[in-house]
Backbone:
């Protein structure tokens, strides 16, 4: 087992648990749909978190040849993947009597903020490893740099339509990154 396999066994476990938590919340929500429709806000928030976790996992693989295992990497990686797990657990209500809309209003800012924090750590770590060579490209501006202002707008906005528009933009960045290699 090399250093990457050692470190990523921890990160992969926590990222997998985050995905399982998000999918488990979705399954519980679908089972209790007689309590009310999940709604676009909660569905988009769940899709946003799930896509971001998978993207983080892909970045781990893309950077694996450059990663050296040390305490900073292990602790920092644990913090980031732990945040992903916590925000994934906040997407859907545990109590079936709580409306999805109320739960979304109470938690979406923390969830989006947590994902943004994880992404800031990833961007900082990636730039430390590979530099800023392509940071000013049009692709980077659209995919990476639009993420933060739109995320902050989603956190600060009081109008649900603005939050939904922001979530749509954030979710659309993921398929765009697949198409726009």
Residues:
């Amino acid at each position: 087992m090399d250093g990457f396999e050692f470190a990523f066994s921890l990160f992969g476990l926590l990222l997998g648990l985050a995905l399982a938590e998000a999918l488990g919340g979705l399954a519980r929500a679908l089972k209790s749909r007689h309590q009310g429709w999940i709604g676009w806000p909660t569905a988009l928030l769940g899709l946003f978190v799930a896509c971001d976790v998978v993207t983080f996992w892909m970045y781990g693989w893309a950077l694996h040849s450059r990663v050296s295992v040390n305490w900073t990497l292990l602790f920092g990686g644990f913090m980031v993947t732990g945040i992903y797990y916590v925000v994934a657990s906040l997407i859907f209500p545990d109590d079936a009597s709580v409306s999805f809309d109320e739960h979304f209003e109470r938690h979406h800012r923390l969830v989006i903020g947590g994902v943004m924090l994880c992404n800031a750590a990833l961007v900082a770590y990636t730039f430390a490893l590979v530099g800023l060579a392509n940071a000013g490209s049009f692709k980077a501006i659209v995919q990476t740099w639009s993420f933060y202002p739109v995320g902050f707008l989603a956190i600060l906005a009081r109008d649900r339509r603005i939050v939904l528009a922001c979530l749509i933009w954030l979710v659309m960045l993921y398929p765009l990154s697949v198409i726009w290699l």
Notes: The chain has one domain: 3-179.
